[in-house]
Write a structure and sequence with these properties.
With 811 residues, the chain is of the alpha+beta class. It folds into 4 domains: 188 residues, no CATH class; 151 residues, no CATH class; 158 residues, no CATH class; 189 residues, no CATH class. Helix content is 50%, strand content 17%. Strand 8 and strand 9 form a beta hairpin. Helix 10 packs parallel to helix 20 and helix 22 packs antiparallel against helix 23. The chain is elongated and about 100 Å long. The chain starts with a helix and ends with a helix.
């Protein structure tokens, strides 16, 4: 029996090469898209899967205003954790970012991603220890735990316990070598415990939110109890105490300082990658929306491919009707015929899966570059998922056509009346309409996404960053408890600024405590009369705003000739001014961290945080006004004459290596390009939608071409008779194509609401967005109708040119 099925399949394959190829190609493209999405899904979902503590370790987040949630916390919780929090197994204060540290051993050195954390760090992230153990790894400030790769890079061996590593002239002893078992929200190359020195200096400071905080709970169900206790401590030690010191009621103090919304959130480690409210871990936050878009669109394409297959299979039934009738007369049962056609689907699906794997393997480097990942086809879970796709495809694509074909009435098909039967027509037409709907959705969606990204790229950003270099600047290590050392940071920068300005081709040099690739670095509350505002601290040097051509709506810029401009002057942006509700701000005084600052100008709004972020209130003051903000300066901005660019860049690099930082590579970016990376996510979505749009249209056209071919073939005698009776070619074309125009229109109407609703939801995340007009829908319908007519008319035109005698001589 199996041999007979194989022979029949080979026979059909030989006589239907084109349509079999279209079936396999369509299915393989659909399966390829789903495989790509599954690889991306598996990678994102795998973060922290290896960690046995992912359910009980929580990251503490501080909501300090209605719009500000910080990943940092006050250090003053520590003493209370030890005595009043029986729900905690342990806690860990730490930096939430990697410090790029130069580590030196013997004659080898390198730059490594380093985390500064308390000794309990490895209780939160229990990496596999090759040497040493978690209890002694970070026992004091002189210890360092390093990864296996770091050990190999520095020593060429992992047996390095007790060996010395120098970090910023500080000798550290290797106490552990670890290996990370899988994807992790924190994957440092080295871990130190310098934080032990920093914590005592702020033991009673309830105003500085400086460090990340991880809490390991004995029972995750106690999360709410811990939150209540932490919020109560903040309330008693901040709100109540500070209100009393200022002689205000609690309500008055909360209103003045915007503390009504002070809350604590505890997010489990298992949700860190895809569901966190903030980007709180050094390895970054995944894009859950983009992931779901990828999965949804890939599933749509696979469904389209399955529809295509079903449509072709049921249309092909016209040719195989007599075969089924003869087999039934010969004694074949209905179940036997169903199994035969499922077997054929299984073979075609197998070929499609194999071809899809080839497509994925060849395209994977481009896909990895697109996602900035290193995905590979491996792992038992992936092959289980592939098996599930195979089974679902066989069932979805095979059972319906098999049942449909097995239900042919033997007497009708053997008399040759099957072609005139309406059986299956409505099903094929319905599936074709659904294909048109999916294609319409993709065309409309691509247009809207393209227009939104175009709108963002052409929108006035409020600054001009072309020809301005944003150079990475590493501050020297200092004692932050020494005011003189902190003031020395600006003095060092000032000296460098003067030297850089002497390089040929450099026209301007300035700096600020922010970056165009990452936004601001500090936020504080300031008050004006009874209004308290959580604002971004935009500490800048003279000339920074002018260099970037950031405009003022009123007032003036900071001026080095006016001494008070580096003492108590401030500019506010339009957002801050609106919240202050002051019509005449120039000369008015704001209270900022117990400083009285006089407003000298209003800065026109500009956005550092990307297209989804609202422009926050900003305060601009000179770096000397607040000395500690100099520590946040990690960029120097240099405007270069474009004519001299080719020579200026090498000269800048040479100067940098000799006079500023010989150990770190000279790394720069252009401001406009750095900011443009904020849009990368949306450009990727546009490119993805465009690519999938092409794929969807191709699959739909494959199906339409095949279905039109079968339809025309079944009406050849009708066409011959019409031509004999004198029908004109254009009349024949209209009659043969009008049903497809109708199907196209119905499919388009079905896609209207989903396309409008889903794309509008996507646009809601943007602060600056387009409004959906009628143009995408008009364009979508015209494009779909044009493609439909091209395919159908080309096929039907060929049919009108046939020799009518060929189809009439037997009548």
């Amino acid at each position: 029996m199996l041999q007979n099925w194989i022979n029949i399949f080979i026979y059909q394959l030989k006589h239907n090469k084109l349509f079999t190829a279209l079936n396999i190609l369509g299915l393989s493209i659909g399966i390829s898209g789903l495989i790509f999405s599954i690889l991306y899904w598996n990678d994102e979902q795998s973060y922290n899967d290896w960690n046995p503590n992912k359910e009980v370790v929580f990251q503490s987040l501080s909501q300090v205003s209605p719009t500000n949630i910080w990943v940092t916390n006050v250090i003053t919780f520590e003493d209370y954790f030890k005595t009043d929090f029986k729900e905690l197994e342990s806690y860990c204060y730490m930096d939430t970012w990697y410090s790029k540290k130069i580590l030196l051993s013997n004659n080898k050195k390198g730059i490594f991603k380093t985390i500064d954390a308390q000794k309990t760090f490895f209780e939160m992230f229990p990496f596999h220890f090759i040497k040493g153990n978690s209890k002694i790894a970070l026992k004091d400030k002189n210890c360092i735990a390093i990864s296996k790769q770091t050990a190999l890079n520095l020593f060429g061996d992992v047996n390095v316990l007790g060996k010395a590593i120098t970090n910023d002239h500080r000798k550290l002893i290797v106490t552990a070598v670890y290996e990370i078992q899988g994807k992790s929200s924190l994957a440092p190359e080295a871990v130190v415990n310098f934080i032990a020195e920093r914590i005592p200096t702020e033991k009673d400071n309830w105003g500085n939110f400086n460090l990340g905080l991880l809490l390991k709970l004995k029972n995750p169900k106690d999360k709410e109890k811990v939150i209540v206790k932490m919020e109560s401590l903040l309330y008693q030690n901040r709100t109540v105490r500070w209100a009393k010191q200022e002689g205000l009621t609690i309500a008055e103090w909360e209103k003045k300082n915007g503390a009504e919304n002070m809350k604590i959130f505890l997010e489990p480690l298992k949700d860190a990658r895809l569901h966190s409210a903030v980007d709180g871990y050094a390895e970054g936050k995944g894009n859950y929306q983009f992931l779901m878009i990828m999965m949804g669109l890939s599933l749509l394409i696979l469904i389209l491919s399955l529809f295509n297959y079903i449509n072709l299979a049921t249309a092909n039934a016209i040719k195989r009707a007599k075969e089924v009738g003869v087999r039934k007369i010969a004694g074949a049962s209905k179940s036997n015929i169903v199994l035969q056609f499922i077997f054929e689907t299984l073979v075609i699906t197998t070929f499609s899966i194999l071809l899809s794997l080839v497509i994925v393997e060849l395209s994977l480097p481009f896909y990895n570059n697109f996602l900035d990942k290193q995905l590979t086809i491996n792992g038992a879970s992936f092959f289980y998922e592939l098996l599930i796709i195979f089974i679902i495809t066989v069932i979805a694509a095979g059972i319906f056509p098999a049942l449909y074909i097995s239900n042919f009435e033997t007497s009708k098909v053997l008399k040759g009346n099957f072609e005139r039967s309406k059986s299956g027509t409505w099903i094929r037409n319905g599936v074709l309409i659904l294909q048109f709907s999916i294609a319409s959705f993709f065309i409309i969606g691509s247009y809207i996404v393209y227009e939104q990204v175009k709108f963002l790229s052409l929108r006035d950003l409020g600054f001009k960053g072309n020809q301005i270099l944003e150079i990475n600047y590493r501050q020297p290590n200092i004692d932050f408890n020494d005011p003189k050392a902190i003031r020395g940071l600006y003095t060092r920068y000032e000296t460098l600024r003067e030297e850089i300005a002497k390089i040929k081709g450099v026209s301007k040099v300035s700096t600020g405590a922010f970056s165009f690739s990452g936004g601001g670095t500090s936020a504080s509350t300031f008050s004006y009369h009874d209004v308290s505002i959580q604002g971004q601290n935009m500490a800048i040097d003279y000339g920074m705003l002018e260099m970037l051509k950031i405009k003022l709506t009123e007032g003036r810029y900071l001026d080095r000739r006016i001494s008070s401009d580096s003492i108590n002057s401030v500019l506010v942006n339009e957002t801050a001014l609106k919240m202050m509700k002051e019509k005449n701000p120039i000369g008015k005084i704001v209270d900022w961290n117990e400083k009285k600052l006089k407003i000298i100008g209003v800065v026109k709004n500009f956005n550092l945080w990307g297209p989804k972020a609202e422009i926050p209130p900003m305060l601009f003051f000179h770096l000397r006004t607040v000395d500690w903000l100099n520590a946040n300066v990690n960029r120097i901005f240099v405007k270069v004459n474009p004519v001299e660019m080719e020579n200026t860049l090498p000269n800048l690099e040479n100067f940098w290596r000799k006079n500023i930082d010989a150990d770190f590579p000279f790394k720069y970016d252009f401001v406009d390009k750095a900011y443009a990376r904020n849009y990368k996510e949306f450009i990727d979505q546009r490119n993805l939608f465009s690519l999938l749009n092409v794929i969807v249209i191709l699959i739909a056209l494959f199906g339409l071409f095949a279905l039109a071919s079968y339809s025309v073939q079944s009406r050849m005698k009708e066409i011959a008779i019409r031509k004999t009776l004198g029908a004109e070619t254009h009349v024949l074309l209209r009659e043969l194509s009008k049903q497809y125009v109708l199907f196209c229109f119905i499919g388009f109407l079905i896609a209207l609401f989903p396309a409008y609703y889903l794309l509008n939801k996507w646009l809601e995340d943007f602060v600056f967005r387009i409004e959906i007009s009628a143009y995408p829908f008009v364009f979508g319908f015209i494009a779909l109708l044009s493609l439909t007519l091209i395919v159908v008319l080309s096929r039907t035109y060929q049919a009108t040119k046939v020799d009518v005698l060929k189809y009439l001589k037997y009548e």
